[in-house]
Specification:
- With about 375 residues, the chain is of the alpha/beta class.
- The protein folds into 2 domains: about 1-100 and about 270-370, Isopropylmalate Dehydrogenase; about 110-255, Isopropylmalate Dehydrogenase (3-Layer(aba) Sandwich).
- It is about 40% helix and about 20% strand.
- Helix 7 (about 165-180) packs across helix 8, helix 11 runs antiparallel to helix 12 and helix 12 crosses helix 13.
- It is globular and about 60 Å long.
- The protein binds 3-isopropylmalic acid and magnesium ion.
- Magnesium ion binds next to helix 10.
């Protein structure tokens, strides 16, 4: 299979984790006889520095001409700390999502037994946690009209949704539930918000088309609590843009590290894959970031291409590094492996280059030991 992949390295740790994903994709291409070509494009603070715009037109062009987009991370502290900045890196990502109509953001969350000790939750709440969040990504309060009064003392952000916007993502979420544990939880704030009442009505109207799926309705404040108290109860969570942003970060820490979680954003044709972590500027350039969020995102990309065996191989390789303690600093701050070493090990595993007896010494050489 031949695929053209647009690569946006982005900001902070984006470049170094994405490079490991490319290494992994190259290993898959070799092993399974595929051809992946990469075209690099700019976005975020990196793009502002180089072109003045957080999303140059050339980037949209490159993305439109590709089969999928692999993206690193966005954001820089110099903008975070300046609320009056006119141009912000995040505008690039929001515009890209909108331009490509990537209306569904899919964030799978499952726990890894090897990492239970890192979770803020207790082990007994973690076993069997396996759910997926379908977050609406191109509507709602993120994209509504924004105002700031002339004297700067009053601001507003409109939240608008149409039936069509809700329907298209609801169908995807119901279909996903049919392939899984057949439970869909709509998270909203229908006791207060008009848009949430529209979500409920539309989703309830669609539900009979998916009679094998059980539909649950949950207010967002309760959902935030249930994610901590009993995360096992969830299968597919469907929610709007803002609630999905917040709940997916909350959900990610359940696994023990934000650095592990991948995501896919899909819509009418286009597809973008990115780890859910941010740009983590403190770690940038140090080769210590966790590459697994990006590598699992690359696995989602392979799955999206229909390459299920290849996606499974990437996941198995990543799982092997976790099980053997080849982990990054967020997982083991004392005895960790470099970002690039983990990428190399995963690529080697994919190409069956890991001998049954590990070359302990070579591996140890790439390990950072601060004790
Ligand atoms: C995410 C991020 C983005 C969002 C930011 C960077 C604009 O937090 O993808 O969850 O809020 O959607
Ligand atoms: Mg977020």
């Amino acid at each position: 299979m031949e695929k053209k992949i647009a690569v946006i390295l982005g900001d902070g740790i984006g470049p170094e984790v994405t490079k490991q994903s490319i290494r992994v994709l190259d290993a898959i291409a070799k092993q399974f006889n595929h051809k992946f070509t990469y075209e690099y494009a700019l976005m975020g603070a990196d793009a502002i520095d180089k072109t003045g715009s957080p999303l140059p037109d050339a980037t949209i062009e490159t993305c439109l001409n590709s089969d999928a987009i692999l993206f690193g991370a966005i954001g820089h502290p110099k903008y975070d700390n300046d609320p009056s900045a006119k141009v912000r890196p995040e505008q690039g990502l929001l515009k890209l999502r909108k331009s490509l109509q990537l209306f569904a953001n899919i964030r799978p969350v499952h726990t890894f037994p090897a990492l239970h000790h890192l979770s803020p939750l207790k082990s007994k709440q973690l076993e069997g946690v396996d759910f997926i969040i379908y977050r609406e990504l191109t509507g709602g309060i993120y994209f509504g009209n924004k105002t700031l009064s002339e004297d700067g003392t009053q601001a507003s952000d409109d939240c608008t949704y149409t039936t069509a916007e809700i329907e298209r993502i609801a169908h995807l979420a119901f279909k996903a539930a049919q392939q899984r544990k057949k439970k869909l939880t709509l998270v909203d704030k229908a006791n207060v918000l008009e848009t949430s009442r529209l979500w409920r009505k539309v989703v309830q109207n669609i539900a009979p088309q998916y009679a094998d799926v059980k539909l649950d309705l949950l207010f967002v404040d309760n959902a935030a609590m249930q994610l901590i108290v009993n995360p096992k109860q969830f299968d597919v969570i469907l929610t709007d843009n803002l609630f999905g942003d917040i709940l997916s970060d909350e959900a990610s820490v359940i696994t023990g590290s934000l650095g592990l979680l991948p995501s896919a954003s899909i819509g009418n044709g286009g597809a973008l894959f990115e780890p859910i972590h941010g740009s983590y500027p403190q770690a940038a350039g140090k080769d210590i970031a966790n590459p697994l969020g990006s590598i699992f995102s690359a696995a989602m990309m392979l799955y999206h291409f229909g390459l299920t065996a290849e996606a499974a191989k990437v996941r198995a390789a990543a799982q092997w590094t976790l099980d053997n303690g080849f982990v990054s600093k967020d997982i083991d701050p004392m005895n960790f492996y470099f970002t690039s070493t983990i990428g190399e090990l995963i690529a080697d595993f994919i190409q069956d280059k890991i001998p049954s007896e590990l070359h302990e010494e070579n591996i140890q050489l790439r390990k950072s030991t601060i004790i």
